Structure prediction request, 135 residues.
Amino acid sequence: MKWTHAGHVMRATAQDRDAATLMGIDTDRVYRLTFAIGIAAVGAAGVLVAPLYSVYPTAGLQFVLLSYVVVVLGGLGDMLGAMLGSLIVAAVEVAGSYLFGAAWKEIFYFILFILVLVFRPAGFFGQRGAETLGV
Prediction:
């Protein structure tokens, strides 16, 4: 999607909806198309994961929570920060499960998550002042 016309239109709409509308882009159509692509990707992931895991309403919640913690730790909108956040979470999880047992591994990265939210709301690699701007 990065080099296609549809990708350019989606990025333009995401960056500034009003400017995209003024340039003649049907932003409502772009939002519908983007949502449809996301739903198709989630459906394909569900089909691929369903044979491996039990399917129930809260299936995948653990993955979603872990992903959220990684993104917030790294800083919103920063790919390098998200990658480093995942390494930090993995190290904390492994160290916690090694020292205290596998049953306690999740508590340690949630404690780290809470500490980061209290002392550095934009994440480790987030923009300075982003928490005051509401970003």
Notes: The chain has seven helices and no strands. The helical segments are 5-15, 17-22, 27-49, 61-74, 79-100, 105-119, 130-133. The chain has two domains: 5-49, 61-133.
